[in-house]
Each structure stands twice: as structure tokens, then as C-alpha cells.
């Protein structure tokens, strides 16, 4: 009887490894540097590209798991089509709102090809914009009607300011973006 139970445990363990291999858990640290940016681990945490100097002092890159959790998109690597449509670069190191300061970024992020089809990238920049006091849907609306005014408001963090603070529990259930409104 003990032998039968031991065989069953071994079979169960082997089966669980097989199923885990089929499901292919996405772990940031296992991703190559050229697939890291705009990926989300199976745990739901964003992957972030970091640079470091190796033992010879040469700059190298590695993929790490950030503490930023994304709802609804675990185990996801952004498509090349979305990377191109949104005007982002897989070579970005870290997560930053600096991209908003380049003239061609906001029009590409707000374009229908990006905003309506690339929820991962839109979610990331929605949250980064909110951190700067800018409400991304309002910025995109202004971008369509008056691109120069949108850039000025972004730089001054005026007009399109995000709503006031929300309790952390409410953020989990709040929609990250509203592509239908554009």
C-alpha cells in the first residue's frame, strides 16, 4: 500500500510538472532583454528592463519583476504591432513618464491603432500620466482637436488633471482606460 501511494505521488508530481510546462508560466527574469519591456509576468507584475555593469565594466541588460501589478493581463508579452503603433521602444530601461515629453509620442499613443488595440501599453501610460496629474483620456481628446494645446497642458499639468486621490482598494476595480470614449 505504501508503494502504491508513493507511486501515485510520483505520478502526481510528474504530471504537475508536465502541466506547468504546457501552461508556460511567464517569469520576467527568464525573458531576454529584447522582450522584457511591456511584458507582464504570470504573477500579474510588470516586467522592467534594467541595466547593469558586468565584471568587465560593460553595460548589459536584464529583465526584472517590478512591484507594479496589472489587473486582467497576466502572462502577457506585448505584440510588435502594438510597440510600433504606440511609438514605444522595447529598449526602454525602467518605467518612466519621460516619453510624454517627446513631440511624437502622445499622438501615437492616442492614435486609434494604439489606444483602441493595445490595452497593456495604454494601461501603463494611463497610470504614468495620472502620476503626473494628467488624465490620459482628456489628453487624447485634446490631442485630436488641438495637438499643440495638448502638449502645453501636459507640460503644465493643467486642464486634463486626474481626479483626486482614490483609496487603494478602489484602484483595483477602477477601469484603467476608456478607449470607447475616444
TrEMBL record:
<keyword id="KW-0732">Signal</keyword>
<protein>
    <recommendedName>
        <fullName>PAR1 protein</fullName>
    </recommendedName>
</protein>
<feature type="signal peptide">
    <location>
        <begin position="1"/>
        <end position="24"/>
    </location>
</feature>
<dbReference type="InterPro" id="IPR009489">
    <property type="entry name" value="PAR1"/>
</dbReference>
<dbReference type="Pfam" id="PF06521">
    <property type="entry name" value="PAR1"/>
</dbReference>
Amino acid at each position: 500500500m505504501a508503494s502504491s501511494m508513493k507511486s501515485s505521488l510520483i505520478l502526481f508530481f510528474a504530471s504537475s510538472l508536465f502541466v506547468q510546462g504546457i501552461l508556460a508560466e511567464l517569469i520576467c527574469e527568464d525573458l531576454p532583454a529584447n522582450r522584457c519591456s511591456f511584458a507582464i509576468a504570470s504573477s500579474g507584475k510588470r516586467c522592467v528592463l534594467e541595466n547593469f555593469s558586468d565584471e568587465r565594466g560593460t553595460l548589459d541588460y536584464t529583465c526584472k519583476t517590478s512591484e507594479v501589478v496589472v489587473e486582467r493581463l497576466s502572462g502577457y508579452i506585448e505584440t510588435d504591432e502594438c510597440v510600433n503603433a504606440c511609438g514605444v521602444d522595447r529598449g526602454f530601461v525602467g518605467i518612466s513618464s519621460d516619453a510624454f515629453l517627446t513631440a511624437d509620442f502622445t499622438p501615437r499613443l492616442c492614435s486609434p491603432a494604439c489606444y483602441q488595440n493595445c490595452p497593456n501599453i495604454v494601461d501603463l501610460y494611463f497610470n504614468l500620466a495620472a502620476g503626473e496629474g494628467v488624465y490620459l483620456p482628456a489628453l487624447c481628446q485634446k490631442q485630436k482637436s488641438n495637438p499643440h494645446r495638448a502638449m502645453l497642458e501636459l507640460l503644465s499639468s493643467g486642464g486634463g488633471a486626474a481626479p483626486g486621490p482614490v483609496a487603494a482598494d478602489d484602484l483595483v476595480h477602477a477601469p484603467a482606460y476608456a478607449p470607447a470614449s475616444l
